[in-house]
């Protein structure tokens, strides 16, 4: 994640299936990063690819100008279903971060020892809060906590900017979900 | 009715390239947008459908790209700033109209958010319409100015320039982007740019009130007349080649290998060159911003010393031909690319750099 | 001495390139007269087709544009939408409008563009040397129907007015002819009405089809060509107000 001079350069992939709010989580992260003065690129998968059932987005968040927005080897990976884990885990960098939705992924990921792994029961935590739809925010909360370069409250502040007006009634739920994910990650036993 | 609620910002906003381009066109004073849906540029018509009426301007979803380019032809003939956007198959259908715009000396802005081809191809990002864009594309002896942005910010920045160039030189200007640039979101600052000093549109069809009839045409049957017109156009193109070339470069003079790429490929190349430098490889890059006129002089100058030129494209090798023309045999010119929606990673490009520089040294 | 024909100012005083007995020249004159009578010359923009009338701007003294084959209705859309105060007309042949430009006219009518369309049906492609048009009559000999048009292989003469009249976006459609003095007078009335509607700001497209002689490629002398319209063409293309 860190460049030699301690400058932030984080490459991330968030992936899952259509309907899990993958794009929204990515957009919120991008918005938060920008609001906090970072450089950011957010690249969604689009079109037929999305219709096929899988959804993913690539983000680069950095202190300085970002050249390439295409993520070849992510520092971090947040995966919400098994297919995405299988697809992206092999390209995760050593010493990287893997957060996976253990509610839907019943296998132990086979990744390098150096990788920090957080098994996050995102769906269950979201259901506890009132809706499985908030699982994306639980995952993002966990990610922000684990990486620590952006704080949860900034993400909560950015929520109204990326949620369409008609969804603003879900702001309290999504805020809680971000906090719950962060709380989980803070206490999680990591490998 | 002019409402003027253009969304100029003093703060950066997160926007995808397609939307940044659309709002920038509005700020640049586009009077009318005509277009037909096609992925990956659908954000542009959707944005325009909402914003143009808010500004009291014209939005029409045409029945085809053929109609869209001709609607532009009509609006442009009356002196209005008009634009369309499409993606590769739609741009093919527009070639007739683009040739007529060139022949009738009408300004227009055409956005091609390229996707994979030939045929229906796919909707992934591609750079395989370079030949079509830079060679004219339609029939006849003409050129279009081609601008290649490489970020969401530049998708916005090229719009006022495109309209000014079109008006100044009375010709179609094409923005050549790709699916990734269109879909990708980045922070964007939207500012109003000062217009160039532009000649009056005294040729426009506005109704022959207190003046002789104006005629906009491209048919010249009398012997020698078309030849004269074409010579006039060529002289104008020469002037453009002289004055309007835009390109960026990095550490070219102190390099053993120069990478040449435009648009999204240039972003990948920049990262690869930075990594190569960290490994002690003397690499640099040149990024054409105008694809026509092409920065031949800059490349030719770089080729005066023996160094390797590596062109990177999302195609099977199109711009590389212009690079070869510019290098003119003075140095080796190589190509690396992916096609049909494939995108090389930074490491792919870095490996090419490593291999070529090792070979070169031995 | 009584003046029998006074040239209207918008009809330029130059010889035309049309063949003797061609309908285009008469249609131009009627058009120019209507423009002058309605006093709209200085806010009218015309669109010339690809076809024998491609040089129409050499004869009609208004601002004019020449466009790609068949695309006039799209060009007119671009003009009218950005210049609602201007009077926009397109002038198109049957190859231009009913064949290569069928999509554009259909959709301009469908959208209800506030434009006036003058549609010259001469049952052939004149400019390219007398090939079959969508409006060519059954059994009519052309260079591409050497044995005469045959419905099984080439379809029936296309009734453009009737087709377009179905669309809610068209407000006025009439078919006229350049075949005798009374018919010509009627054609002028129809043209005038089509322009008046646009001047009034009526919501929709108006179109006047004119059955027009092409003696050259009908291989007839001018009087016979006129008579052929009245005798044969009107069977496939009945005259009168269609909408
Ligand atoms: C794209 C294209 N295809 C073909 C032509 C050749 N062409 C010129 S005029 C014409 C037919 C014109 O016929 P019509 O519209 O009936 O007009 P007329 O000459 O009969 O008045 C054709 C096919 C062209 N100019 N452009
Ligand atoms: S060929 Fe026919 S339509 Fe053309 S000018 Fe001659 S008579 Fe008129
Ligand atoms: Mg004809």
In a few lines, what is going on in this structure?
The complex is a heterotrimer of chains A (191), B (362) and C (243). Chain A is built from seven helices and six strands.
Features:
heterotrimer, A: 191 residues, alpha/beta, Pyruvate-ferredoxin Oxidoreductase, domain 3, six-stranded mixed sheet, globular, B: 362 residues, Rossmann fold, 2 domains, eight-stranded mixed sheet, five-stranded mixed sheet, 20% strand, binds thiamine diphosphate, binds iron/sulfur cluster, binds magnesium ion
Give your account of this protein's structure.
The complex is a heterotrimer of chains A (191), B (362) and C (243). Chain A has 191 residues and is α/β, with parallel strands linked by helices. Chain A is 39% helix and 20% strand. Chain A has one domain (9-187): 3-Layer(aba) Sandwich (Pyruvate-ferredoxin Oxidoreductase, domain 3), CATH 3.40.920. Chain A has helices at residues 22-35, 48-51, 82-88, 122-129, 135-147, 152-162, 171-187, and strands at residues 9-17, 39-44, 54-62, 76-79, 97-101, 116-120. A 6-stranded mixed sheet of chain A has the order 2-3-1-4-5-6, with helices on both faces. In chain A, helix 3 links the parallel strand 4 and strand 5. The longest helix of chain A has 17 residues, at 171-187. Chain A starts with 8 loop residues before the first strand and ends with a helix. Chain B is an alpha/beta fold and 362 residues long. Chain B is 41% helix and 20% strand. Chain B has helices at residues 17-27, 43-54, 65-77, 88-103, 130-134, 152-169, 179-183, 225-243, 263-278, 296-302, 319-327, 346-361; strands at residues 13-16, 32-35, 58-61, 82-86, 108-116, 122-125, 145-147, 172-178, 185-188, 215-216, 247-250, 257-260, 283-288, 290-292, 308-313, 333-337. In chain B, strands 2, 3, 4, 5, 6, 7, 8 and 14 form an 8-stranded mixed sheet that branches. In chain B, helix 1 (17-27) packs parallel to helix 2 and helix 3 (65-77) runs parallel beside helix 4. Chain C has 9 helices and 9 strands. The mean pLDDT of chain C is 97. Chains in contact: A-B, B-C. Chains A and B meet through helix 1 and strand 2 of A and helix 7, strand 9, helix 9 and helix 12 of B. Bound molecules: thiamine diphosphate, iron/sulfur cluster and magnesium ion. Magnesium ion is lined by residues 51, 93-95, 122, 124-126, 133 of chain C.
